[in-house]
From TrEMBL:
Species per Swiss-Prot/TrEMBL record: Karstenula rhodostoma CBS 690.94
Entry keyword set: FAD, Flavoprotein, Oxidoreductase
Family named by the database record: Belongs to the oxygen-dependent FAD-linked oxidoreductase family.
InterPro entries xrefs: FAD-bd_PCMH-like_sf, FAD-bd_PCMH_sub2, FAD-linked_Oxidoreductase, Oxid_FAD_bind_N
Segments forming domain FAD linked oxidase N-terminal: 5-126
SUPFAM superfamilies: FAD-binding/transporter-associated domain-like
GO MF term set: flavin adenine dinucleotide binding; oxidoreductase activity
The name this protein goes by in its record: FAD-binding domain-containing protein
Key word Flavoprotein present: yes
């Protein structure tokens, strides 16, 4: 059964009505956002009830223009479009990462308030003053886009990587390397970018480097620092990926990519300043090359003493213990909060899908 809700009050009423059966484990529930997580059961359920939150919309900039209220069902394209009217930008994107992360850290560490429906059906607010245990700025023009390179360039791109999302991928029989790059000062001749722009293997015809607004780049990426990173490890993992998936590249419709998303120290330090970052990543551990792959890759990294506990939530596999990656201290705190606000374990045992703290 699919239940579509348009307000926190409707969610509350639904939970209160279902609560006796949820406590008795006679019905199962799952919550569907906008459909990012790909594996079965994350946002749907067999013989249970799915609460669809796409109707929870509402983008409102405060009169003093110091904060913006966003509904759980709003998509980022709509948010960016609305805020552009006021010369504002939002730095919320997948996993809390954005073009501005190196300047301001994880987006989740700058949230002022959450409106939350508890497992009891009660509606509460979580912020710095109440329910603390549960617990955007002027726009600018950006230069950047997606640059495509011949596949043999991947090693050179790793050597050059700073504030770059770097991938190597197969699609419809072709192999290509890509860099998603951006420069907040709109300086197309910035020295840091020349190492990418001047590579002879750059495929200029297909690259999309340009000057534009944040919304333009976010929409493009939705379709589509090396600051101590271990370059030799990154290259070795890329070779493993080539060995494992290379033979499959001719399969019809086969698309698969291997990407590095660097968490540089500037991001982690600024995130800590904004509120002791919620992911509990010590800036001294940065940068982290976060990837989605394979037991073999983890084994190689662990063998070199370079395997990090943190798993990028957006790309976490359903078998991964993503929440454990926040560290033992944060996991204990999350479990304490869960027992306090959900003593009947409704959210842990009756709500399926996603990553449950009880499994960490």
């Amino acid at each position: 059964m699919l239940m579509q809700v348009v307000s926190a009050q409707e969610v509350s009423a639904l939970i209160e009505r279902l609560r006796p059966k949820l406590v008795a484990r006679k019905v199962s529930l799952t919550i569907k956002g906008t459909g990012h997580t790909p594996f079965a059961g994350a946002a749907n359920i067999q013989d249970g009830i799915t609460i669809a939150t796409q109707g929870l919309k509402g983008i409102q900039l405060a009169e003093n223009k110091e904060y913006v209220t966003i509904g759980a069902g709003d998509k980022w394209r709509s948010v960016y479009t609305e805020l552009e009217k006021y010369k504002w930008w939002s730095r919320w994107q997948g996993g809390g990462m954005s073009f501005y992360s190196t300047r301001h850290g994880f987006a989740c560490d700058s949230v002022l308030d959450f409106e939350v429906v508890l497992a009891s059906g009660d509606i509460v607010h979580a912020n710095a003053k109440e329910n603390t245990d549960l617990f955007t700025f002027p726009s600018s023009t950006i230069w950047g886009g997606v640059a495509y390179y011949m596949p043999h360039s991947f090693g050179q791109l790793i050597d050059a990587t700073t504030h770059i999302m770097l991938s190597s991928g197969y699609g419809f029989g072709y192999h290509v390397s890509t860099c998603c790059m951006y420069h907040l000062k709109e300086d197309t001749d910035a020295p840091a970018l020349q190492r990418f722009r001047l590579l002879p293997s750059l495929i200029k015809r297909d690259s999309t480097l340009q000057t534009g607004k944040q919304m333009d780049f976010c929409y493009e990426l939705s379709k589509f620092t090396q600051d101590g990173s271990n370059v030799s490890l990154m290259k070795e993992l890329h070779q493993v990926w080539l060995q494992i998936l290379g033979p499959l590249r001719q399969l019809k419709g086969f698309i698969f990519s291997f990407g590095y998303f660097p968490f540089i120290k500037a991001l982690l330090e600024n995130s800590k300043k904004a509120g002791d970052n919620a992911k509990a990543i010590d800036p001294a551990d940065g940068p982290l090359a976060v990837d989605e792959l394979l037991r073999r890759i983890k084994k190689i990294a662990a063998g070199k003493g370079l395997l990090q506990r943190y798993i990028f939530t957006n790309y976490g596999y359903h078998k991964d213990d993503v929440l454990a990656g926040h560290g033992e201290k944060r996991v204990r705190r999350m479990k304490d909060v869960s027992r306090k606000y959900d003593p009947d374990d409704i959210l842990q045992k009756s709500v399926l899908g996603g990553f449950n703290i009880s499994k960490s």
